[in-house]
Structure formats: structure tokens, C-alpha cells
Design brief:
The chain is an all-alpha fold. The chain has one domain. It contains six helices and no strands. α1 packs across α6.
């Protein structure tokens, strides 16, 4: 089912979260934790290559097992490539946030805002795919007449994800 407008998308997300009994604030925290586990995997890989010490690869495998177990709590329907797409959406989002933060530190505000915007679009796409609110075929380039799935999802995810909810 293609998502035609903001209200349809909001209804679909609300229906999915109610059906699955999802606590999206916990899911948001978990997704950020998974991002950090992906970063740890990357650092362990580079440490193994720089030091030629295989203990880092053993640790990498342990962290990977933890990450995959935690991802199963969010990625419920890993049809096709959704599992890998989800992992890469989180990893790319995290990296763009980090680069955006570095640009902000250099006082490159325009570039940092652009990177943050891209990071958030990827993050909302992760949630859209995993809540079943968007299908891969629904993602398209933005035109002036039509909002992209990114724009629609950004509005919806802002409403349903509340990291301050305890």
C-alpha cells in the first residue's frame, strides 16, 4: 500500500505501534545503542588491522552477536534486504551525525545542518521500514508538488518518538 498523505501515514504508524505494543521511546534508545554497537564493531576491526592482534576480532564477534540479538527486537520483518538495509541506515545516520558534529565544532553551521538533516532522514527511514509504515518502493525523489517519504516520515517520527518519555 502506497502512502499517499501525511494523515494516512500517521494512522498507519499509530496502528502498527498499537498492534505491536511498541514502546517507541525504548525503541529509540535501543536504536541509538545499536548505532553505538555498530561503531564499536568498526573500531574493533580497525584495531585488529592496526595491531595485527586477533583478540580484537574475537571481541568484534561478541559485540556483533550482541548487536544482532538487539536488532531482532526492532527489525521484526526482515524480508529481502530489510535487515541489512536497517543496519546500514543506522550506521550511516550515526556517521553523518558524527561528521555533522565535527563540522559544527569548526563553525560550519550550514554544512553541519545539512549533514544532520541527512542523518535524521536516514534515521526516520529506518523507523518507517521497521514499523511497516513505508515500503522500499514508496521512497522517491522529492518534487515541489509532492512530499517525499523522508519529509512525511520526519513529521510522523517526531510525533511518535519521544526520547524524553520515561
Amino acid at each position: 500500500m502506497a502512502v499517499n498523505n501525511y494523515q494516512d501515514l500517521l494512522k498507519k504508524v499509530e496502528k502498527v505501534t498499537a498492534q505491536k505494543g511498541l514502546d517507541l521511546s525504548s525503541g529509540e534508545d535501543l536504536s541509538i545503542g545499536i548505532m553505538n554497537l555498530i561503531a564499536i564493531e568498526e573500531h574493533l576491526f580497525y584495531s585488529s588491522q592496526k595491531t595485527k592482534d586477533n583478540k580484537y576480532l574475537e571481541l568484534l564477534n561478541e559485540v556483533r552477536l550482541m548487536r544482532t540479538g538487539l536488532m531482532k527486537e526492532i527489525v521484526k520483518n526482515p524480508e529481502g534486504e530489510i535487515w541489512c538495509i536497517s543496519k546500514h541506515l543506522l550506521a550511516a545516520s550515526m556517521r553523518l551525525m558524527e561528521v555533522g558534529t565535527k563540522e559544527l565544532k569548526k563553525d560550519n553551521k550550514t554544512k553541519s545542518r545539512d549533514l544532520f538533516d541527512k542523518a535524521y532522514k536516514l534515521y526516520t527511514l529506518f523507523w518507517g521500514l521497521n514499523l511497516g509504515a513505508v515500503k522500499v518502493k514508496d521512497v522517491k525523489q522529492e518534487t515541489k508538488e509532492d512530499k517525499t517519504v523522508f519529509a512525511k516520515l520526519g513529521t510522523i517520527i517526531n510525533k511518535v518518538l519521544d526520547c524524553c518519555r520515561e
